[in-house]
Amino acid sequence: MSSAPSPLLTATGPSTGSADIRLIVTDMDGTLLDDAKRVPPGLWRTLAELRWRGVVFSPASGRQYATLAKEFAEVAEGMVFIAENGTYVVRDGVELSSDPLEPGVAAGVVRAVRQLVADGVDVGAVVCGKRSAYVERGDEAFLAEVRRYYAEHRVVEDATALDDDVIKVALFDFGAAERTTAPALEPFTATLPHSRLRSSGGIPKVVVSGEHWVDVMNGTADKGAALRRLQHELGVTPAQTMVFGDYLNDLEMLDAADWSFAMANAHPDVIARARHLAPSNNDNGVLRTIARVLGLEA
């Protein structure tokens, strides 16, 4: 846990302009995107300037790789996509790393969600494979939420029997996920009697990734682990890495960078963990901070 965030690099702080940044990693929802899910003005110009300077830009999100690749299709060359909360990392169409769930674990989570639904919880599971996402629930209200984050998705009769590498199971709870769905899954993940999983470090964990979203994935998987592998791959140090986040699934990622920023709108635990504070997602905080630290045109 770092000390309280420094206000040095908020909108009112002095610029630095001389930082040796080689890698910039940002969460999407609540961080780079505003509350209406829009990319900030000036993003494409900033990405072009970063490319010219040799700085690698990496969206890191709970979103599906196909969704991220579609969002950045015009500028995707050379970018690294840390998708599915770090469980699947791709650059120029080539997988750099992945951390799939054991098939039995994914099926068990789906059955647990079915029981939650039977108990009256308004929740649905998204089984996230490398090729597609899969859902059993086909009502329009649920599918509308799925479409926001999963460009490739299919409605299937049985999500426990899939021909795909499952990298996580995401749950959308129409209520408060942190209070309802997440606690209901904790006993399930803590008591799975898989000795092989325990010896390999693959015990599942539950991560609250948004107000309505919960992810179940390997205990070895998170955005921070993916970022550290990427830093090793690129030969980039934490001192040369800038990271932006707003929610609990960003915590480990913040630990992997000296230049770690919580958005002003972030969860209190994220603000406490980051070294610095950036303006909010609705105030174009990511791009304003990048411009200030790297000395770009605002």
Give the helix/strand layout:
Elements: E1 23-26, H1 28-32, H2 43-53, E2 56-59, H3 65-71, E3 80-83, E4 88-91, E5 94-98, H4 103-118, E6 123-129, E7 133-135, H5 140-149, E8 153-155, E9 166-173, H6 181-190, H7 195-200, E10 204-208, E11 213-218, H8 223-234, E12 241-245, H9 251-255, E13 259-263, H10 268-273, E14 276-278, H11 285-294
Parallel strand pairs: 1-2, 1-12, 7-8, 12-13, 13-14
Antiparallel strand pairs: 3-4, 4-5, 6-7, 6-9, 9-11, 10-11
Write up this protein:
The protein is an alpha/beta fold. It folds into 2 domains: 7-98 and 222-294, HAD superfamily/HAD-like (Rossmann fold); 103-218, Hypothetical Protein, Haloacid Dehalogenase-like Hydrolase, Chain: A, domain 2. Helix content is 33%, strand content 22%. The chain has 11 helices and 14 strands. It has a 6-stranded mixed β-sheet, with helices on both faces. It has a 5-stranded parallel β-sheet with strand order 2-1-12-13-14. Strands 3-4-5 form a 3-stranded antiparallel β-sheet, sandwiched between helices. Strand 4 (88-91) and strand 5 form a beta hairpin. The longest helix has 16 residues, at 103-118. The protein is globular. It starts with 22 loop residues before the first strand and ends with a helix. Mean pLDDT is 89; it is low at 1-8, 10-14 and 191-201.
